[in-house]
Amino acid sequence: MGDILIMIGVGLVVAGIAYKFGIDGLYYKKKGDTIKEVLVSESKWNKSRLGFSGKNKTVKQMSQEWVLRTMDKLIKKNPSMPYDTLKRFIIADQYRARLFRLKPLKDNQIQITIYKIKNKGLKAFDKIRDTQLKPMDINNPKNSFEQRMIQAYNNCRDIQLHKYLGVLSDQEIKHLLKDNYIQKKDVKALFSF
C-alpha cells in the first residue's frame, strides 16, 4: 500500500522498514531539514478488520497506544532511522492515521476506500470519516491516477499470488475466484476451471 501512497503523490517520504513491524505505512513530510507532518497508514483487503494486540488483546490496531508500541520496536531495531522524532509527533498527538481498504468488485473492478482514523489533535477513532473512490476497471483505467492505482494493485497481487497459488486447495482457489481476487487467467496454467 505504501506504493499506492507514493504514487498518489502525497509528498511524503517512506520512513524505512516500518511494515516489518506491523505498520503498513509510516510517512513523513519535511520542510528543509525539519519534519513537519507524520502519517501512519494501514491497508486491509476486502472485509478484513483492524486487529487487537497486547495482554488480553485490548490494544486496537492503529490506536495511539498501538502506534507507540510499534514505534518502540522500530526504535529498538533501527536506532539510526528518524523514528525518535516521529514518535514525538505521535506522543504530542500531532499525526494523522489512515486506513486504506481495497475491495474487489464484480466485472474486474476494484474500489479503494480511505478512512480517516485520526487527524492531528483528535483522538484515534473519534470521528472516522471515509472517502470512497469510484470503482476502477482493472482492464480499462480512465486516467493516470487509476493507472497508477491499478499498477500498484497488480504488482502487489502478482507478487503475493505467485507465492501462494501453487499451495492452495481447489476449494480455496474457487473461493478466491468468487471473491474476484484472482481471475481464471491466473489459474489456467495450473488448473482447468
How would you sum up the major sheet?
Answer: 7 strands, mixed
- Rg measurement, Å: 18 Å
Structural class: alpha+beta
> How many extended strands?
9
The number of distinct structural domains comes to: 1
Low-confidence stretches: 1-12
Q: Report, as a whole number of angstroms, the end-to-end distance.
A: 31 Å
Number of separate helices: 6
**Mean of residue pLDDT?**
76
Order of helices and strands: HEEEEEHHEEEEHHH
Helix content: 25-40%
Shape: globular
Strand content: 25-35%
Short description:
With 193 residues, the chain is α+β, with helices and mostly antiparallel strands. It is 33% helix and 26% strand. The longest helix has 21 residues.
Explain this structure to me?
The structure is a single chain. The chain is α+β, with helices and mostly antiparallel strands and 193 residues long. The protein has one domain. The chain has 6 helices and 9 strands, in the order αβββββααββββααα. α1 packs antiparallel against α4 and α2 runs antiparallel to α3. It is globular and about 50 Å long. The N terminus is likely disordered.
